[in-house]
Prior knowledge:
By secondary structure, the chain is an alpha/beta fold. The chain contains 13 helices and 11 strands.
Amino acid sequence: MGTSKWLKDRVAIVGMGWTPFGEHFQWDYTDLLKLAAADAMADAGIGREEISAAWLGTAFPDAGVYRGRSGMDLAESLALFDVPITRLSNYCATGAEAIRGGINSLLSGESNAVLVAGVEKLRDRAPQESIVKMMVETGHPYYQKGFTAAGTFATYARRHMKEFSLTREDLAMVSVKNHLHGSMNPKAHHRKEITVEQVLSSPMVADPLSVMDSCPTTDGAAVLILVRAEDAHRYKGTPIFFKGMGMSVSTGWDLPFFDDRCNFLSFRATQVAAQRAYQEADIQDPIREIDLAEVHDCFSIVELLTYEDLGFCAQGEARNFLKSGATTRDGEIPVNVSGGLLSCGHPVGATGVRMVCEIVEHLRGQAGPRQISGAKTGLTHNIGGPGAIASVLILGMEANL
């Protein structure tokens, strides 16, 4: 992962923008990218001619719209030519992976200002062109035939129920909390408060996870402008600095299901990524030193597991931690004040970048009615595949240059 303090305070975000997330039949892939990039570039006060490299994150270019297969799609959309553009995919950590690429380009000296984009257009495809179908047709000839994301995470929920007396009501409370937060976010896909009863009565997807325990299928884009910290003063946007970053691929598609070391109670990838990010950022006590977090709640159980894997509470204590109110907007460590994936939606390639935009808004004091007062340090977390890939980013305001 590099030598100690290889990142802290060396790269700054000076521009950010993200589209509303939702069903955008009026906008195509290019439109979403243009809208988010225009906002990010205006925020930074930067022109195209100043961007020396770019990263494009699209997780599923072949799932219906056939865009995002190459950096050419970003070059064409933004008229950003004659610079290196890298297109990448890393499942739900795609956006975070794009950010990692931009950071490393700046630190290597290859680039002076980079654009990082995450975009996904998921609502334009017919049900027959779903991600599930794609996995069945292109994945493992045996294992993938029965694979769904909901089924994977339902396994973890059932094991938590057995070991720690987790209930469906506990799971529902995650969605209730995040939809309450999302009702204050004008860019969220779903902006209505809901009740525990509504979650419990929604159709079952993979027992014990219902429709309202699951994030919606969504369109959206998010863009960041990154520069080296010593150059941040040249740009208009209030700089926010990277304090730490960790990424880990800790298993594969066939694992953990056939690994007898896996107890289905935690995600090793999250634990490893968090440890690396905390070490870089000098975080000793995350619940005391982090003011808010955006974590990957693709399903309600994942947020609960992430409390434990990030060290916000001990293993088995997530349900009590949630019930205590610690992760509400007014709690000890607010989690998913944006509404999370459950309310914002999950355009896969865009989510990791969108989370960073949310943290930037709070650290700048620009988050409106959902603002966390006095926020100085924020964390983002993504996990993808069967809990295989995880990223943790830590952001802060002051830089010790």
